[in-house]
């Protein structure tokens, strides 16, 4: 059987209102389970943020669904509302440490099948580096970061320093879009998620390429962008053309933008066979990994089906996308991949 590693899924532990209030009495996220025990609501203070289902906080229920879906291993990361980047750094560090420890608790019963990525207080680079290293040593398989901290994009000096630290320490990094750009025009139909979220990811990738940051970050960095890299693959030709024709685009970028695709990976959460084929053509079959965004409604409901049913991918490519790429990216030993 083909190994299946879903490297992009989310969790949200059973954070009580009281626990959240110790961090922020007004807006900290917490989870209010419904009376049926199967559903709940992520809250931010008194406001409902998002309806959720039990696999988000119950690892045993998650394993049951993984078995039904044929998923061998799932890497979980924080729901981005948990990041805490707007808190004072020391408060955010305490929050991240608590959430990271809770995440490991969720994996304790089935550590060969459930694994986690840590969160860090990215608003303070020294604290973020220290917590990334602590969490990685404690058993986290990498770290998930938001694609920006307020106005700071990934080309900010502090974020370059963090990525460089992860490269030196061998800590894989997943970049997830969050706090999407909007001036209020995208009010309906989940448009911030459908329009701004892919744009945020493309912005992050191009900020590293066009700023020259990739010239300074060690090539050892294992870096992945969620949601297929957002708009990046489809619009890469436009970026290359701009680099050739306008000196202001290539001012800090010595190489053609498309030449940097070997510096990062993306997940497969694009939901369309044509889009996945384009993504593999642009990135190469060894730089696309199965990622579902489970258990949210905008994720792939039948995890891996887009890859399984794709007429344009040969069996070798499918093996790479479904599991082998993630196994190498996260450095997972063979022994840990035989559980399902």
From TrEMBL:
GO terms under cellular component: cytosol
One Gene Ontology biological process: secondary metabolic process
Domain Amidohydrolase-related: 5-332
Gene Ontology molecular-function annotations: aminocarboxymuconate-semialdehyde decarboxylase activity; hydrolase activity; metal ion binding
Protein keywords: Decarboxylase, Lyase, Metal-binding, Zinc
Gene3D superfamilies noted in UniProt: Metal-dependent hydrolases
Pfam families associated with the record: Amidohydro_2 (PF04909)
Pathway named in the protein's UniProt entry: Secondary metabolite metabolism; quinolate metabolism
SUPFAM superfamilies, A to Z: Metallo-dependent hydrolases
Lineage top rank: taxon: Bacteria
EC number, as in UniProt: 4.1.1.45
Matches recorded under PANTHER family: 2-AMINO-3-CARBOXYLMUCONATE-6-SEMIALDEHYDE DECARBOXYLASE, 2-AMINO-3-CARBOXYMUCONATE-6-SEMIALDEHYDE DECARBOXYLASE
Similarity comment text for this entry: Belongs to the metallo-dependent hydrolases superfamily. ACMSD family.
Oligomer status and interactors: Monomer.
Protein name, per record: 2-amino-3-carboxymuconate-6-semialdehyde decarboxylase
Source species taxonomy: Bacteria, Pseudomonadati, Pseudomonadota, Betaproteobacteria, Burkholderiales
């Amino acid at each position: 059987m083909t190994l299946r590693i879903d490297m992009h899924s989310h969790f949200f532990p059973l954070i009580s209102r009281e626990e959240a209030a110790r961090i922020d009495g007004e807006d900290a996220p917490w989870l209010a389970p419904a009376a049926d025990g199967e559903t709940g609501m992520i809250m931010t203070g008194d406001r409902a943020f998002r309806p959720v289902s039990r696999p988000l906080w119950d690892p045993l229920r998650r394993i049951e669904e993984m078995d039904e879906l044929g998923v061998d291993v799932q890497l979980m990361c924080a729901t981005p509302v948990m990041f805490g980047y707007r808190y004072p750094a020391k408060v955010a560090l305490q929050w991240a440490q608590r959430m990271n420890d809770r995440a490991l608790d969720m994996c304790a019963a089935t550590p060969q099948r459930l694994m986690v990525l840590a969160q860090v207080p990215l608003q303070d680079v020294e604290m973020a580096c220290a917590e990334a290293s602590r969490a990685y040593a404690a058993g986290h398989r990498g770290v998930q970061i938001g694609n920006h901290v307020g106005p700071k994009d990934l080309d900010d000096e502090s974020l370059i320093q963090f990525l460089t630290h992860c490269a030196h320490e061998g800590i894989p990094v997943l970049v997830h879009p969050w706090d999407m750009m909007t001036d209020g025009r995208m009010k309906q139909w989940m448009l911030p998620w459908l329009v701004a979220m892919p744009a945020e990811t493309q912005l992050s990738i191009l900020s590293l390429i066009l700023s020259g940051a990739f010239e300074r970050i060690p090539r050892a960095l294992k870096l992945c962008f969620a949601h297929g890299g957002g708009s990046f693959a489809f619009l890469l030709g436009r970026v290359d053309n701009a680099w050739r024709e306008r000196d202001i685009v290539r001012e800090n970028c010595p190489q053609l933008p498309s030449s940097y695709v070997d510096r990062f990976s993306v997940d497969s959460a694009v939901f369309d066979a044509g889009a996945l084929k384009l993504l593999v053509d642009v990135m190469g079959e060894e730089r696309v990994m199965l990622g579902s965004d489970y258990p949210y409604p905008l994720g792939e409901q039948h995890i891996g089906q887009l890859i399984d049913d794709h007429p344009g991918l040969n069996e070798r490519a499918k093996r790479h996308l479904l599991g082998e790429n993630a196994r190498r990216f996260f450095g997972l030993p063979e022994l840990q991949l035989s559980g399902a």
